[in-house]
Amino acid sequence: MSIETTVVNGQPPAFASTSERLCRPFLYGTHYVVDRVSGRATFAGDVAPGGDVVVHPGLVGVAAAYALWLGRAAFHAGGFISREGAWAIVGAKGEGKTTLLAALAGRGAAILADDLLVLDGLTALAGPRTLDLRPDAAALVGQAQVTTRVRNGERGRLHVDVVPLAVPFRGWVELRAGPVVALDPVPPAERVSLMAPHALRPLGPARAATLLHLASRPAWRLQRPKRPEALAECVDMLETLLR
């Protein structure tokens, strides 16, 4: 797989997706093309995209394309590793998934992925080694001093340690806002509805079967108030659960 950036003047190619080629709009008026046959991903625009945005979120789009081409399940989710395997963190936009991952990293947890979690059966695959945090989130988790500014200064980038490329998939953590910190088990009958909104393509019969298979893994619902001190309480609860 090769990654390149280039300058292309004029109108971008038609945005489309086939079994061999994907073209999508990207940040700041640019676009990217992923070609399955040549194994090349090209990021282009009137000004070539910077390497910081290619690393993230650019590689998320590339990985998502190949995941779907190869028949793997892909979710808008983060992931971290416990002693027994990988846990997915899912939740609505703005619920603080990346902030929670950064707080876990600050406690020494291994981070598997952010924004995109790819599952090959019951095996979870590693993603890029970065977490991009808004300034307030970086300050909240105490990582402001170890981040670099990316995305035109809009994010602080936290670099996380190298992890194995593939680890057993252990289960799900759904992050939700709420009035008090709480961690509750999700019954098996509710797990598909927990996962489905975060899957990267619409459900068909085969896709539904995949989700039923993944629903065999345990799932927990983590409720987090927005008050700053609640983040540490959430991490404490997760650490206690996984021990």
| Portion in helices | 25-40%
Strand content: 25-35%
- Whole-number radius of gyration? 18 Å
Mean pLDDT: 89
Which segments are poorly predicted (pLDDT under 50) over 5 or more consecutive residues?
none
Number of strands: 17
The major beta sheet can be summarized as: 9 strands, mixed
User: What is the string of helix and strand elements?
Assistant: EEEEEHEEEHEEEEHEEEEHHEH
Distance between the termini: 38 Å
**Shape designation:** globular
Structural class: alpha+beta
| Separate helix tally | 6
Can you describe this structure?
It is a single chain. A hairpin with a 4-residue loop joins β13 and β14. With 243 residues, the protein is α+β, with helices and mostly antiparallel strands. Helices cover 28% and strands 35% of the residues. The strands form 3 sheets. Strands 6, 7, 8, 9, 10, 11, 15, 16 and 17 form a 9-stranded mixed beta sheet that branches. Strands 1-5-4-3-2 form a 5-stranded mixed beta sheet, covered by helices on one side. The chain has a 3-stranded antiparallel beta sheet with strand order 12-14-13. The chain has 6 helices and 17 strands.
Describe what is shown at a glance.
By secondary structure, this protein is an alpha+beta fold. The protein has helices spanning about 50-70, 95-105, 135-140, 190-195, 205-215, 230-240; strands at about 1-5, 15, 20-25, 30-35, 40-45, 75, 80, 85-90, 110-115, 115-120, 125, 130-135, 145-150, 155-160, 165-175, 180-185, 220-225.
List keywords for this structure.
alpha+beta, 35% strand, five-stranded mixed beta sheet, 17 strands, 28% helix, globular, 243 residues
